[in-house]
Write a sequence for this structure.
């Protein structure tokens, strides 16, 4: 298969030959090197065959849809939980509202068995369970248990009644004092994770939830990892786990160093949270752009316009700390706990 | 640099896309079946296609990156179909519980299952030689995209897709003939 003949030459000659009526191909191929000729002739021979390629895999697709159920149904049991309804389909699987044995609501996240293509996918799922359960903080979602069930891997988590920051921001402007309070809570969660040596690595509005009683919770530690020694990331997933995460959606909250393929540090989390807080207070995203490339360039080199240009009434200290969170140099960013102090000082 | 980062992250993107593609496929299939309970007109590739459009549309508002989305969604679809084909084949070998189905459908399913697995493996070999051509096949064959959509998703001309497709097809047929002989 690894032919000594350059692929480009095979390609060129193959197409040249196809452009000719079959009777003239002989003349075209007569003068060329024997190995190249053999390659091209065998391809032309294959071209004339009616193979399986034109037919789309309809039977398998139909069989798949027929034999494997979609979402779990109400009443179905997963470990000690009874599924009530499907809440969302996300990158890391499906999330259901379920009940435990006492009828208490839980959020059940399930990664279905047949969707686990490789060990990494399963690993990441387990990482989330481990990272979040290692953290006990009022602003971080509580994990009750995780394990395997016939339906797939599952994580049972605290049921949160509320909305994500994404939904809140999509719904309209947030009052400044409110934004500062919520931002402070998110920063406290991040600070707690960092002092436990855990990076979140996927901070974005979709992963921050506001409970109806006003408590902010950080979710989705699916990409989290222990900080520890922060050398270049060895795994293929590396920092790009975040990049690929939800395509360029996450791009908006990605730090310049991550875009450069460097290792994530706690400062990268701070940057991402900074982008969220900027959006929450200013009412617009600091790196908005038409295309992913625009966003990319904005993160890399566009100056961030001061918050007061977009929104009045944001205390100067607050807007200053948010801009510092968005500093291109990781070392110049404040720590999450510094951010807590500043935002905390402005709580009502 | 950005593209490099993305391609590096493809496995993660793929893992994340699988549940979305799979679920969307089911949702559309359920709807199509309920609307047309006796119809033979249900074309799985049309479903796949509709799933993409629907997902692309909903993701588009936020993510803006249609091309990359399509590439990953087609990869996810390939993986889902190949996984299923493999499990069907191992069931047959292992003598698992046979699915009750219309007699003449089963042989077609098994035949196609082995073809899909063979194609999948040949496509991996093609990817090593010419990644773009293997992507074209992935999108057209597994993703059910048209020539025009494939061209748009890959950012190349329609003529290029047609040429790539033709050569890739010849190459794959040759490869699979070699394997089976």
């Amino acid at each position: 298969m690894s032919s000594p003949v350059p692929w480009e030459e095979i390609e060129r000659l193959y197409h040249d030959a196809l452009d000719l009526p079959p009777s003239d191909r002989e003349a075209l191929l007569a003068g060329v090197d024997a190995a190249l000729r053999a390659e091209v002739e065998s391809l032309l021979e294959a071209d004339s065959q009616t193979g399986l390629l034109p037919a789309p895999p309809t039977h398998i697709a139909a069989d798949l849809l027929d034999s494997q159920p979609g979402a779990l149904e109400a009443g179905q049991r997963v470990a000690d939980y009874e599924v009530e309804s499907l809440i969302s389909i996300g990158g890391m699987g499906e999330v259901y509202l379920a009940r435990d044995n006492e009828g208490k609501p839980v959020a059940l996240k399930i990664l279905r068995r047949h969707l686990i293509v490789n060990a990494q996918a399963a690993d990441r799922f387990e990482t989330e369970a481990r990272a979040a359960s290692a953290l006990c903080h009022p602003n971080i979602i509580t994990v009750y248990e995780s394990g395997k069930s016939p339906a797939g891997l599952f994580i049972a988590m605290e049921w949160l009644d509320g909305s994500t920051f994404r939904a809140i921001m999509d719904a309209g402007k947030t009052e400044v004092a409110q934004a500062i309070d919520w931002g402070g809570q998110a920063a406290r969660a991040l600070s707690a994770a960092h002092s436990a040596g855990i990076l979140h690595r996927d901070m974005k509005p979709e992963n921050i939830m506001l409970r109806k009683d006003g408590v902010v919770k950080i979710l989705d530690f699916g990409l989290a990892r222990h900080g520890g020694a922060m050398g270049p990331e060895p795994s293929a997933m590396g920092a790009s786990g975040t990049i690929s995460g939800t395509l360029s959606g996450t791009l908006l909250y990605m730090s310049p160093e991550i875009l450069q393929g460097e290792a994530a540090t706690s400062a990268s989390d701070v940057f991402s949270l900074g982008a969220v807080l900027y959006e929450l207070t200013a009412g617009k995203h600091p790196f908005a752009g038409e295309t992913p490339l625009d966003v990319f360039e904005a993160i890399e080199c566009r100056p961030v316009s001061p918050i007061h240009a977009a929104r009045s009434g944001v205390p100067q200290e607050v807007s200053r700390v948010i801009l510092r969170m968005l500093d291109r140099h990781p070392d110049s960013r404040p720590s999450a706990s510094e951010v807590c102090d500043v935002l905390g000082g402005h709580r009502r | 640099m950005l593209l490099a980062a993305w391609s590096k992250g493809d496995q993660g993107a793929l893992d994340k896309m699988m549940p979305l593609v799979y679920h969307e496929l089911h949702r559309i299939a359920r709807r199509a079946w309920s609307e047309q309970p006796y119809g033979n007109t249900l074309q799985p590739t049309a479903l796949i296609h509709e799933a993409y459009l629907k997902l692309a549309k909903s993701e588009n508002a936020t993510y803006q990156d249609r091309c990359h989305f399509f590439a990953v969604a087609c990869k996810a679809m390939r993986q889902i179909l190949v996984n299923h084909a493999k499990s069907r084949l191992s069931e047959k070998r292992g003598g698992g519980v046979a699915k009750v189905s219309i007699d003449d459908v089963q042989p077609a399913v098994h035949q196609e299952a082995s073809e899909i697995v063979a194609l999948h493996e040949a496509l991996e070999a093609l990817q090593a030689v010419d990644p773009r051509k293997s992507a074209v096949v992935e999108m057209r064959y597994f993703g059910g995209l048209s020539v025009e959509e494939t061209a748009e998703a890959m950012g190349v001309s329609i003529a290029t897709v047609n040429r790539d497709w033709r050569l890739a097809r010849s190459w794959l047929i040759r490869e699979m003939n070699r394997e089976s002989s």
